[in-house]
Amino acid sequence: MESDIMIKAKGISEDFQINWKHQYVLADINFEIKKGEFVCIVGPSGCGKSTLLRIITGLERPTSGNINLASKKLAMVFQNFALFPWLTVEENIAFGLLMSGVERSKAEKIVKEQISAIGLSGVEKKHPKELSGGMRQRVGIARALAVDPEILLLDEPFSALDVFTAKKLRADLLSVWKSRGLTVLMVSHLVEEAVELSDRIIIMSTNPGKIKEIKPINLERPRNPRSESFYTLVDNIEGKIH
Ligand SMILES: Nc1ncnc2c1ncn2[C@@H]1O[C@H](COP(=O)(O)OP(=O)(O)O)[C@@H](O)[C@H]1O
Ligand SMILES: [Mg+2]
Question: Whole-prediction pTM value?
Answer without folding.
Answer: 0.95
